Amino acid sequence: MSFEPEAFVVSDLPRAAEEPREARKPEARPKPQSARAPARSPAPLVERPEPAARPARPAAPPQARIVKLPTPRTELDARLLAAEQAIGGSDEPLAAPSRDSAWLELGEAYAAAGLAVEARITFARAATSPAVGSAARRALLAMALAARGLRGSQAWPLALARDERGPCDPELLVALLLATGEGAPLAPSGALSAAASLIDEADARLDVRSAWLARSALADLCGGDPLLLARGRDRALARLERGLSLGRDLPRAVRALSDPRAAERVRLLGEGLAHFESTPRVKGLLEGSPEATLAYVRLVFACAIGRAGDAPRARSLLESALSVLPSADPVHDVLSRSFAARVQQALEQEVEGAPLPPETIAAIQRLGRLERYKVDRVRQASKLLEPEPDLDPFRSFGQAEPGGAAEWVTRVAHAPLPSDAAAILDEVAVLCEREADPSPRRERLAAWTAALAYAPRSVSGPRLEGVVRVALTLEPLDRVRAVSSIVALAERLRRHDLAALLVGQLTSEVAELPISQVASVVPHVVRGAGELRRGPSRAELERLYRRIGSILGAARDTPTRVARLVLLKGLAEIGAVDGALELDADVALLETGELSPSDRLQLARGVAACASALGMLEVVRRVAALWRRMTDSYNTNSHLCLSAVELADCVAWALTPRRGDRASLARSMADDDEQSVRALVFGAEG
Q1: Which of 281, 457, 528, 629 has a Cα at 20 to 30 A from 237?
Q2: For position 5, what pLDDT does the model report?
Q3: Other CB atoms closer than 10 Å to residue 607's CB: what's the count?
Q4: Helix (H), strand (E) counts: the chain
């Protein structure tokens, strides 16, 4: 049995790059074109017998990145390919001055090929260079005028024209503003105030550099307007807090960068989905609709495939799934909105677990207690939908009053101004500090910490130590969980000193916990490993992981097995795994052991995630083969088979590229490049 990796790799990037940037709002259910079957997938998996013992194999050496680009057919294609490979073939940071000429050449190649959006993204980057900036600004304007057959005198009226969707030509407007000092036509009377409004409306369609440079040029033309500049910084900061978007902020030459293992993951995602779609299961008497179950499996894979970079396939799966689920049912409606939002965030490469849209959060809160419980059970079963490890549907069901981190995170993430975000954070801080009951205090602190991650850095940084002070007053088990979340946040805010101090604190705190509790804190401790992988806290983190491993020892109960697997995954993520490793004992228990359905799913998730981090992708295939026995004989949900969806999520989540994941070089380079954008917008202290 063989599969072609190209079948699941984006091959139409030029077309995808030219798609409108204003995708439909994730909170509104997309209207499917038809109830068509999903695109053809590879042949189904076959269940394999347990393999014979294998000799130990050495860890795979690091592999060079690859660039997946079209095969040149014409001289223009050859020029474009050479320009893109010049970017992809260098190990220099994207903002390195040595790349300036290559960025200008790439922009000119995109312009010649008619790829206006790609050209604008690339020229905007080159426009900040002292060496080629002037040439890049002139080239951007020349492209915008030539593409429309315009003379200079005709440019401003067309750039300022409106239709019912807002500004109709943001490329031309940005080009005119950036080229103000390069011979661009002068703006007519009243044009600048109109341009400021249009740039705001076009913000969602522009990369963050273009939007900032356009606003900066506007402020200069208005006599150095400080308010206009401050508002531009606020908008840029709000976008940068979620990181650069691969689809909107970086050109195709960067989006195509990957590791050879990434193509294999994409192939296995397609193979796994084909297996789940085509392999029969034994339906239990108590489980929900098989059609709805398969629709949710497709939604899970739409999220994963979107993060892997195959936008057309992800959208196709989303449409196919939504065409099956009834919108009149409140549970299906809320879950559909939530998954649609996650798919859109995946396509934009936003941070995993970014807040859902306010409308979706509000829809969840409006549900009745039983409906909310059913929705929360699906959120608990799918890390691609809700990565929060402490989501407790039973606690939510028992509370008459809604509340939690999601509401505070959503309010902060969507606050119009930094001052608004600060006021919201101070509100939850007061509630947390005044709460004397340990359980509500713990939950308030979790909300406070989560919301800080989505506030502007100038707002969250000064408030970080207040969160630490409250965390240290919690009971030991809660304290370890809370400090684990704060460590990753401190590293993200570049408080390396505080992160290292807190990791040391965790090492001593974990040693004081009863052994029965140590396994339960491992997912929290390991969750932020990707943030610390390249920071100065890495050595402290490795010591912490080794210490936890020695405490866990060789116990064989399921929670401890899962904890060891998660810990091994964390070591792999920080590059601290050496020598050969085998998971055969855990896989054998998973396939043939006497386990409860709940324990089997926990172990399946641990095995799949660990195997993926170690590059042992054949093991992930064996986890997927458990599909035949998945049924809800033990925990029912009237709307779907929860066990089947959870197994699909185990496989898809394990194979999904994530921030800090070595298989996502494009994402890694984008995260590194974020600092250069901050320096451009906010100065060196950004």
Answers
A1: 528
A2: 31
A3: 25
A4: 34, 4
Taking only the tens place, the pLDDT of each residue in 400-454 is 444 567 778 888 888 878 888 899 999 999 999 888 888 888 888 988 988 888 8
- At position 308, the amino acid (one-letter code) is A
Does residue 102 contact residue 87 with C-beta atoms inside 8 Å? yes
d(C-alpha 195, C-alpha 193), whole Å? 5
The single residue listed with the structure tokens 């509790």 is 517
DSSP 8-state symbol, 162: E
User: From CA 463, how far away is CA 451, in angstroms rounded?
Assistant: 11
Write the DSSP assignment of 100-151 as a string of letters: HHHHHHHHHHHHHTT-HHHHHHHHHHHTT-TTTHHHHHHHHHHHHHHHHT--
Q: Which helix (H) or strand (E) holds 163?
A: strand 162-163
Could you tell me the pLDDT band of residue 362, with boundaries at 50, 70 and 90?
Answer: confident
Give SS3 for 149: coil
8 A C-beta contact, residue 280 and residue 682: no
**How far is residue 429's CA from residue 452's CA, in Å, rounded to a whole number?**
11
d(Cα 445, Cα 270) in Å, to the nearest integer? 40
Residues 552, 571: Cα–Cα separation, whole Å: 15
User: Whole-angstrom Cα distance, residue 235 to residue 248?
Assistant: 15
Rounded Cα distance between 425 and 413, Å, is 11
pLDDT tops 60 at residue 58: no
Element (H, E) at 206: none
Q: Is the pLDDT of residue 650 over 90?
A: yes
Phi and psi, residue 163, nearest 5°: -135, -170
Residue 391 burial (CB count, 10 A):
17
Tokens representing 19 are: 């798609």
End-to-end Cα separation, the chain, in angstroms = 52
Q: Which two tokens stand for residue 317?
A: 């799966």
Would you say the C-alpha torsion 375, 377, 383, 386 has a positive or negative sign? positive
Unique residue bearing structure tokens 């807040």: 355
Q: Are 637 and 374 in contact (CB under 8 A)?
A: yes
Q: Which residues contact 351 (CB under 8 A, 6 or more apart)?
A: 242, 243, 659
Q: What is the mean pLDDT of residues 330-349?
A: 91
